[in-house]
Write a sequence for this structure.
């Protein structure tokens, strides 16, 4: 089975972290997000994938020079210009020569979806396309998908108000497609699969959907990125780790931590944490330095950033790579420090 992985977005909601790296290359408890996405696909028989690249494509290519990610052989399809979701699917699938049933996933969604069950359902229904659904409390930020009892999609409603949503079942960002779907997508122009292609297939009666309540998280915001780490640290999403979680914290073997308090903390490689520091529900990316007496709470500290002695970061600060926060600073709220470099 082959897959198309959509990783072309700029990750604007996670800036300044994504000025330096594509969102899907940011680590989740020490492992790049892309690898965690592909690991689940590999578990369900995906052996080859094509990465649909747009933003900072060289970062992906340089990270995996042997063309293997989490045991999956990958190729790269770099869009000449942004083509939106459907355009990107078409471009990548044709680039890879895909001419059989294939899987599409959004590379910024972490899930333990039973992909095998989804593919089996797709084939049993004789569908042209099948969407994985996931129930949520508030569907207003997503595409909502009401279905008939047999799974055939009734409508595809993109981001309705909470009051007007016909269901709480949302598009979970994993699709099974027949190659014939590519013929429904115009060549070389921006086309949205959610707003154009799927509604067209609804009219033709060939779009189906299947709900799955396994672990699912869209990592597109700083809070969601923090949640992805916390879910691993507290066992909500059990995953294998080279370094065990101890007392709800994960510290890379190369990191140095003084006499400090860590709670739901991720301390990545080559980080340095001084004495009398509090790290709570926060992520320190590689090479970050937290000086004595500082507190980092509900925040993300970028690579090689320095948090000065006695500084306090509170919900929800995002400090970009290389930024130096002066000692004694107090920051809280939607603080974003750092720009393109």
């Amino acid at each position: 089975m082959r897959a198309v992985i959509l990783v072309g977005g700029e990750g604007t909601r996670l800036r300044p972290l994504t000025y330096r790296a594509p969102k899907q290359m940011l680590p989740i408890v020490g492992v790049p997000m892309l690898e965690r996405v592909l690991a689940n696909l590999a578990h369900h028989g995906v052996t080859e994938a094509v990465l649909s690249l747009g933003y900072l494509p060289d970062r992906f290519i340089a990270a995996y020079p042997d063309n293997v990610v989490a045991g999956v052989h990958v190729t790269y399809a770099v869009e000449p210009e942004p083509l939106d979701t459907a355009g990107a699917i078409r471009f990548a699938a044709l680039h890879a020569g895909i001419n059989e049933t294939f899987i599409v996933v959004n590379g910024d969604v972490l899930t333990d979806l039973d992909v095998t069950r989804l593919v089996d359902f797709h084939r049993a229904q004789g569908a042209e396309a099948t969407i994985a659904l996931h129930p949520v409390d508030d569907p207003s930020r997503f595409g909502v998908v009401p279905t008939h009892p047999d799974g055939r999609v009734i409508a595809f409603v993109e981001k309705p108000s909470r009051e007007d949503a016909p269901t709480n079942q949302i598009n979970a960002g994993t699709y099974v497609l027949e190659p014939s779907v590519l013929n429904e997508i115009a060549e070389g122009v921006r086309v949205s699969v959610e707003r154009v292609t799927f509604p067209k297939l609804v009219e033709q009666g060939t779009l189906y959907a299947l709900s799955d309540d396994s672990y699912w998280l869209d990592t597109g915001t700083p809070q969601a990125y923090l949640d992805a780490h916390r879910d691993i640290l507290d066992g909500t999403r059990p995953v294998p780790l080279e370094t065990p979680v101890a007392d709800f914290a994960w510290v890379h073997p190369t990191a140095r931590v003084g006499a400090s308090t860590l709670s739901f903390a991720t301390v990545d490689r080559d980080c340095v944490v001084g004495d009398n520091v509090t790290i709570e529900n926060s992520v320190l990316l590689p090479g970050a330095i937290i000086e004595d007496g500082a507190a980092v709470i509900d925040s993300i500290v970028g690579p090689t950033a320095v948090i000065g002695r006695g500084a306090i970061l509170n919900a929800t600060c995002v400090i970009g790579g290389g930024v130096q926060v002066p000692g004694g600073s107090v920051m809280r709220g939607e603080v974003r420090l750092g720009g393109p470099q």
Notes: Residues 244 and 250 are 7 Å apart (CA to CA). The chain is about 20% helix and 30% strand. The two ends are 39 Å apart (CA to CA). The chain has two domains: 2-218, 242-337.
